[in-house]
């Protein structure tokens, strides 16, 4: 005989920092819930980051609920092992009611208004479902990868750990967002000959006029700006993050300087045909645009300093240290020395398990600060859910508190309605 599904008022799908933050605030309000995590709590940071990975934002921005960074280096950048330790300490504080190793396979609305939550360990019902699984689910690897010879080792950025896992020879890194730029630097510093297919990611300075740029932007109110206040509105959610690094105390990533040191730069990779890699003639445009963003951020800081009479050392704007000559649009694979490729072109979301009318045509959730038009369905931990820090340690806790307040109000209304119905 099949057991009836177990009921829980709130089901949280995902046990990373976002789901754990929701659990923290639910526990604070005495609201029963369960966290479902198909792996282990906060596992991504330990299992899907390279060995030299570190934060690109200062440690002082790490402000999970009841767990603000209080270590000895607030202006530094935690390394991978330190991040994992920080999160393990957060798990120990929250003590979430979590079902590790349990995957949620389907969520759908029942006729009685509850959600049917199917999992790998059995069925549940819930009044509210919080999707805390992030938006980086399926690694993007283009179809051209299927045409490359088997002699070339191919991995995605989420599989990259160390230069030594790739065979001897030269390496092509495809994509210059945060992961691509930092992985290219990691390989470059290890003495590997790197070929980098440069995309349209912007860049920013690490330090400018005596302070970390993040600190200046915080003072300027950038991190408190909501998506509704941003000039791009919802469009900002599609923006690529600026590349910069916290490695070795923090520094710029300047692809032009890498070129002067032997890294080969190309435009966006377009295809592989007849033994040849084909690149678009976009390298100069991409580098110039990244530098314009870099200098425009610094100019905004200059304006803030001037308007507020702040004493800060003068600093010139960036001028290019290298310019591409004739564009290289074709590269013969056999003659290139390339034996490995790291695909750093992102991920696509996969919410197929959630049967709810809360998605746009691209399969991305539609919401207002994580609250969807379908009563009882919420999202947390997505980039620009509400502010720049929504997908990071800095603001996910505030987003979680807001969502839990909405949940508490709605659950309370349901109890009142049930009382009068009886």
TrEMBL record:
Keyword Oxidoreductase: yes
Protein name in UniProt: Flavoprotein involved in K+ transport
Signal peptide (residue range): none
NCBIfam families: MSMEG_0569_nitr
Statement: the UniProt record of this protein carries the keyword Oxidoreductase: yes
InterPro entries for this protein: Auxin_biosynth/cation_transpt, CHP04046_FMN-dependent, FAD/NAD-bd_sf
Annotated keywords: Oxidoreductase
Short name of any one Pfam family annotated for the protein: Pyr_redox_3
């Amino acid at each position: 005989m099949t057991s009836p599904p177990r009921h829980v008022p709130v089901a949280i799908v995902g046990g990373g920092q976002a789901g754990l933050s929701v659990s923290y605030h639910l526990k604070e309000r005495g609201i029963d819930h369960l966290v479902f995590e198909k792996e282990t709590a906060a596992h991504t940071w330990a299992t899907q980051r390279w060995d030299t990975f570190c934060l690109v934002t200062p440690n002082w921005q790490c402000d999970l609920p009841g767990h603000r960074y209080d270590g000895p280096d607030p202006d530094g950048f935690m390394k991978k092992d330190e991040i994992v330790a920080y999160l393990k300490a957060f798990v120990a504080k929250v003590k979430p009611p979590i079902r590790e190793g349990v995957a949620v396979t389907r969520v759908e609305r029942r006729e009685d208004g509850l959600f049917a939550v199917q999992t790998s360990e059995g069925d549940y019902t819930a009044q509210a479902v919080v999707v805390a699984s992030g938006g980086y689910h399926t690694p993007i690897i283009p179809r051209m990868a299927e045409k490359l010879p088997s002699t070339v080792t191919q991995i995605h950025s989420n599989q990259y750990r160390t230069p030594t896992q790739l065979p001897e020879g030269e390496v092509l890194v495809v994509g210059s967002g945060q992961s691509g730029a930092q992985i290219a630097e990691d390989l470059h510093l290890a003495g590997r000959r790197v070929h980098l297919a440069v995309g349209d990611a912007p860049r920013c300075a690490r330090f400018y006029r005596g302070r970390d740029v993040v600190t200046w932007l915080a003072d300027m109110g950038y991190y408190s700006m909501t998506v509704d206040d941003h000039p791009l509105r919802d469009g900002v959610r599609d923006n690529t993050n600026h590349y910069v690094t916290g490695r070795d105390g923090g520094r710029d990533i300047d692809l032009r300087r890498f070129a002067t040191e032997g890294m080969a730069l190309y435009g966006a990779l377009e295809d592989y045909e007849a033994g040849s890699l084909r690149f678009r003639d976009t390298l100069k445009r991409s580098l110039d645009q990244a530098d314009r963003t870099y200098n425009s951020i610094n100019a905004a800081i200059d304006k803030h300093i001037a308007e507020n009479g702040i004493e800060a050392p003068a600093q010139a704007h960036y001028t290019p240290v290298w310019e591409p000559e004739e564009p290289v649009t074709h590269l013969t694979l056999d003659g290139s020395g390339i034996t490995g490729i790291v695909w750093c072109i992102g991920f696509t979301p996969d919410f197929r398990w959630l049967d709810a009318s809360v998605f746009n045509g691209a399969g991305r959730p539609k919401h207002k600060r994580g609250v969807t038009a379908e009563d009882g369905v919420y999202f947390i931990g997505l980039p620009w859910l509400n502010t720049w820090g929504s997908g990071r340690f800095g603001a996910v806790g505030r987003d979680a508190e807001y969502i839990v307040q909405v949940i508490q109000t709605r659950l309370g209304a349901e109890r009142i309605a049930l009382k009068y119905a009886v």
